[in-house]
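Input (structure):
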C-alpha cells in the first residue's frame, strides 16, 4: 500500500511540473481558535437596594496577537477570512444582593467607528447563574461583524445593561470561538 502511494507521488512529479503541483495543493488552511476575556461589573450600594443601576464595560481581542494564529501566519495579509463560530458568556464570582438580576442587557460588537451590532442577552438572576455554572450562547447574525473583523483583525465589544437589587459585584466571562482562513505560503513549508 505504501509503495503505491510513493509511486503515485513520483509519477505525479514526473507528469506535472512543480508549479502545476503547487496549484493542486490547497494553499489555505482553517484555524479554529478561542479567546476568553472577562469584564468586571461593580454596582455599589444605593440608598434603595431595589434601584436599577446601569452598567457598562468592554474589551478587545486582536487576532494578530494570538499565539495560536501567529505561529501559522507570516503576515496579517495572509488572513483571508475571520468567522465567528460562537460567543458564550457566563457569570462568575458573584457577591452582593442575591436578588440581583441583569436586566435589558446586551453585547455591542463594533463594526466600525461608532457602528456595531447589538445582541440582546436574556434577563438572568446573576447569583443563581453563577452558582449553577450556567453558560449562555449569544445568538444572532454575525455576518457584518465577520466582515469588519476580517478587515481590521480586531474584535471589540461592550457589555451594557441594568442590575436590579444592589449592591452586586460579578464578572462576565466571554468566550469567542472563531474560524480563520489563512493563506499559506508553500515556499515557507
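Output (sequence):
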Amino acid at each position: 500500500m505504501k509503495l503505491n502511494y510513493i509511486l503515485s507521488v513520483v509519477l505525479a512529479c514526473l507528469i506535472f511540473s512543480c508549479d502545476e503541483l503547487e496549484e493542486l495543493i490547497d494553499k489555505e488552511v482553517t484555524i479554529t481558535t478561542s479567546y476568553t476575556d472577562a469584564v468586571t461589573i461593580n454596582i455599589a450600594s444605593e440608598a434603595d437596594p431595589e434601584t436599577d443601576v446601569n452598567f457598562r464595560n468592554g474589551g478587545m481581542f486582536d487576532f494578530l496577537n494570538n499565539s495560536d494564529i501567529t505561529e501559522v501566519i507570516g503576515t496579517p495579509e495572509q488572513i483571508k477570512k475571520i468567522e465567528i463560530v460562537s460567543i458564550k458568556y457566563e457569570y462568575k464570582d458573584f457577591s452582593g444582593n442575591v436578588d440581583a438580576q441583569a436586566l435589558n442587557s446586551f453585547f455591542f460588537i463594533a463594526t466600525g467607528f461608532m457602528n456595531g451590532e447589538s445582541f440582546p442577552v436574556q434577563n438572568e438572576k446573576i447569583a443563581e447563574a453563577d452558582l449553577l455554572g450556567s453558560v449562555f450562547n449569544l445568538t444572532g447574525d454575525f455576518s457584518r461583524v465577520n466582515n469588519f473583523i476580517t478587515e481590521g483583525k480586531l474584535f471589540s465589544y461592550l457589555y451594557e445593561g441594568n442590575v436590579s437589587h444592589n449592591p452586586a459585584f460579578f464578572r462576565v466571562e466571554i468566550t469567542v470561538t472563531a474560524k480563520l482562513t489563512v493563506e499559506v505560503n508553500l515556499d515557507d513549508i
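Notes: The chain has five helices and nine strands. The mean pLDDT is 83.
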